[in-house]
Amino acid sequence: MSRTAEEPEAAAAAARPGQPGQPAPERRGRPRSAAADSAIIEAVLHLLEEGASIGDLSMERIARQAGVGKATVYRRWPGKSALMLDVMRSLDIPPPQLNGDSVRDDLVALLEFLRRRGLAKRSSALLRTIVSHVQAQPELWAEYHETVVRARHEALLAVLRRGVARGEIRADHDIGTIADLFVGPMLARAILHDWKELPEGLAEDIVDMVLEGVRPGPAAAD
User: Fold this and answer.
1) N or C: which end of the chain has fewer CB within 10 A?
2) What's phi and psi for 154, nearest 5 deg?
3) Which string of b and e fits 85-117 if b means at least 16 CB within 10 Å?
4) 6-28, pLDDT tens digit by residue?
5) Distance CA 49, CA 157 (A)
6) pTM score > 0.85 for this model?
7) Which residues, in sequence order, are CB contacts of 129 under 8 Å at separation 6+?
């Protein structure tokens, strides 16, 4: 089986003692190859799609499927759980681009993104398997939230702060709690109550109901 080629790269080196300003000879290293990364992640997905369980997978088996050496896999991931985290990231769809013109429309776009993610998880046994594996590893799940989920949450908070600045959302409540009012119903249906439907138009319904509740009253508007 062929191995994925990796091109060497120059490693940074400090100046040699006693010769200030003179660079040290370059050391040649082996950088990460994007092709190898993709081949390894695709190998995991292929094996899982063929019916292998995560417990069945070993780093050696993954390396064989990817056509790389075992050392190539271990240089990238210390173990299978860390690899699964990147596999899950590879299945993530990019968040929507917000135009910033309408607070309501941006909120709908963010909740529609959550709705589609919920539908994808329900329809994909592969995604459910990988997510459940990462959730069982608290440190990996925390890293996923820090690197992926947090960015989405910050985008929501930015939209809500814009709504407060425009006088469309009341300013006398914690902005994080208001954010929970928007995403909570969608997450409850998608995760806690997975027998409930996630119909088209649900994002709009949630946004309009919550906006009605958090809109400043006449006294606050004055």
Assistant:
1) C
2) -65, -35
3) bebbeeeeeebeebeeeebeebbbbbbbbbbeb
4) 333 333 333 333 333 444 344 34
5) 37
6) no
7) 48, 53, 54
